[in-house]
């Protein structure tokens, strides 16, 4: 099997199965709008499918006669490249969306962690003030300080 046709087959144990289509699930929800289908057979660009299998350019007349066939093959290959490029763009857009979602998720997590840290710092400050107030009351009750809470 040639390198070019290797993508058309998948190994399953000791059997080979031809791949007709590849399906890429690119969204977070079920639905056809989140599935990209790639038709492997449609992008097969071998000489037989392109119609240039028997084209010869050995003689001047053969070369001149084959130009129209070669032009058609070039148009066909250009169309295939356009299909593959469109698929690549759609997959790249999905990757960009996932990267953006990951960044937004990380930023939200950071905000939550910062809020938790601020809450802990506030609780520590409140408890510290309460402790100071409690110690000040004890000192005031013993008569060592003249009024309420003693400043430190």
3D architecture notes:
With 152 residues, this protein is mostly helical. Helix content is 57%, strand content 12%. It is built from 2 helices and 4 strands, in the order ββββαα. The protein has helices spanning 47-50, 60-141; strands at 9-12, 15-18, 21-25, 35-39. The strands form 2 sheets. The protein has a two-stranded antiparallel sheet. The longest helix is centred in the middle third of the chain and has 82 residues, at 60-141. The chain is rod-shaped and about 110 Å long.
Structural class per helix/strand content?
Answer: mainly alpha
Supply Rg: 36 Å
- What is the number of strand segments? 4
List the strand order in the largest sheet: 1-2
Cα distance spanning the termini = 86 Å
| Helix amount | 55-70%
- Tertiary shape: rod-shaped
- What proportion strand? 5-15%
Order of helices and strands: EEEEHH
Number of domains: 1
Q: Please, what is the average pLDDT?
A: 79
The total of helices stands at: 2
Unreliable spans are 1-8
Largest sheet: 2 strands, antiparallel
Which features does this protein show?
disordered N terminus; 4 strands; 152 residues; two-stranded antiparallel ribbon; rod-shaped; single chain; mainly alpha
